[in-house]
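Re: beginner question about structure tokens

> Can someone show what the tokenized structure looks like for a real chain? I only ever see the sequence side.

Sure, here's an example I had lying around. Input first:
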Amino acid sequence: MRAIGLCTALLIISTPALAAWNVTHFTDRMTDKSVAVATVSAPPGTLRVTCSGPDIIFDSPIAFGHIGMNYRFDTDEMVPRIVPMASDGRTAWVWLSSALETRQRIARAKRLRVEIFPVGLPRVFMDFDLTGANEAIKALGCQGH
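And the corresponding structure tokens:
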């Protein structure tokens, strides 16, 4: 009986969360322009996609300056990176490709795994279920999707 409970617990831990994309539209108060943001969460982070490009926002500050990170779409090769963090310590700019290319890659993928290495803290792993990303990204209204 204990083995069944352990197997169930391991299955729950290793299964990516179901995709729950949220698309929000608002007016930028400085430019008066309409802005759209699509997000999907995999605690402790959220993948945020906008027309200007995607990033990952963490629930609390994890690093300042730069941080080591690996990411992997679907069954592609893992990509190791040293990425810049925003001054708030919560936002990571991960991708080197253009905003359009990165949005298209996210739209085609089913899964994005991200592992970060905060200095002095344990590794953090996030498993984003990208199901529905294509529709969420189309809803942003970006040129070329």
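Each token stands for a local structural state, so reading them left to right follows the chain. Confidence is low (pLDDT under 50) at residues 1-18.
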